Fold:
Amino acid sequence: MSRRKKGSEFTIGDLLVVAVGAGFGLALGYFAAERFGRVNTQRVATALERWKSRRARAPESWTEADEERLEARVLDTLRRDVVLGRRAIRVGVFAGGIVELSGSVTHPNEVALAGGVVRAVAGVRTVLNHLLVAGTDAGVPGPSTPRAARG
Structure:
């Protein structure tokens, strides 16, 4: 029979007691706040919905300053990326959080990477990804090509 020093190890029982105590404390605190305070389930749910809707939507009226701030955030994000920071990518921002990417990249995977990186920026609602892969894509006349270039 070996003898342990008291307090030298935690057992599963100790961790279980701590977890149950923490859960009981949270439940008791929530109950007390609901019973005696101004916190209740409906208020918490309403506050969470408001927070989610504010995060997801663009400002009601976009100004040039909003567009410039969003463009700066997008450019900073692209520059911080190890691969995309070296590519010639132009960014255009339109009202409502619409971001247009144009320019060229060296590999087809970089087109999807750029779109995903830009979509993750707060305030971006739509990404118009017009990136071309150098050496494989040719300018195809389409609605975004000026009439003079279409012939």
User: Anything to note?
Assistant: The longest strand covers residues 98-105. The chain has two domains: 12-56, 64-150. The helical segments are 12-36, 41-56, 64-80, 108-119, 147-150. Residues 147-151 have pLDDT under 50 and may be disordered.
